[in-house]
Amino acid sequence: MSMLQAITFDLDDTLWDNHGVMARTEEGHYRWLLETLENWLAARQAAPLGLNYAEGLADYLARRQQLVTEVPERRGDFTWLRLRALEAQLEASGLARSTALMWAAAAMNEFHRLRVQVSPHPEVAPLLSTLRQRYRLAAITNGNIHLQRQPLAEYFPVAIAAGELLAPKPDPKPFLTALERLGVAPEQALHVGDSWEEDVLPAQRLGMHAVWVSESGDQALPERVERIAHVRELAELLAWLEKRR
Ligand SMILES: [Mg+2]
């Protein structure tokens, strides 16, 4: 392999397990919104909204799906989708528009507070600490995690939120943006991620090296692609790749 100078990382399900965090965040910020907002209305002797948690949550999801079909270019901008869906739901429930906007924004603030409560695999911080002495590091995520607030932010001088570029992976744009900010050519960079479709294939097609983090997978690996079962195996793989070149 040619001189490797930079490593880009997917975050969700690569550096931490995301499933539980998303479920807690999805339910938690909506429950917070209903409870806090009803208390706020009660304190003003205003009529309660009467939004039912389960039905409201389902309606919130349906509104996001509807927005994706109406505004497809925003399909990867999950923060925008959530904000617009909440604003519309609150307004439809009887709040004045300005009040709906305020409470939707407050709910998204709570969403981001919960969303960054991820627990990176314990091996990750020491790994990144070692790697950054030798490589330039970047994060490329489709998730709407607040990149500056996530616990590994200090290791990633370059951090790309692909949804906000309106070009979620597998679009090549977030990869090209990262490479440009890192100042390296594709063949000098390696991308690490758990998704075959969103991480491995687009990186490989651009000429980057790629490491697929997957416990299983029988498919033949294209050139410049390796598979590891867990990110903790990355350092060993890199040592092997560097020796082989
Ligand atoms: Mg991922």
From TrEMBL:
Name of a matching Pfam family: Hydrolase
Keyword Ribosomal protein attached: no
A biological process from GO: riboflavin biosynthetic process
GO molecular function: hydrolase activity
Cofactor(s) the record lists: Mg(2+)
Keyword tags: Hydrolase, Magnesium
Gene3D superfamilies attached to this UniProt entry: 1.20.120.1600, HAD superfamily/HAD-like
Record-linked PANTHER family: 5-AMINO-6-(5-PHOSPHO-D-RIBITYLAMINO)URACIL PHOSPHATASE YIGB (PTHR46470:SF4), N-ACYLNEURAMINATE-9-PHOSPHATASE (PTHR46470)
Classification via NCBIfam families: HAD-SF-IA-v1 (TIGR01549), HAD-SF-IA-v3 (TIGR01509)
Protein name, per record: HAD family hydrolase
Source organism per UniProt: Vreelandella azerica
Organismal lineage: Bacteria, Pseudomonadati, Pseudomonadota, Gammaproteobacteria, Oceanospirillales
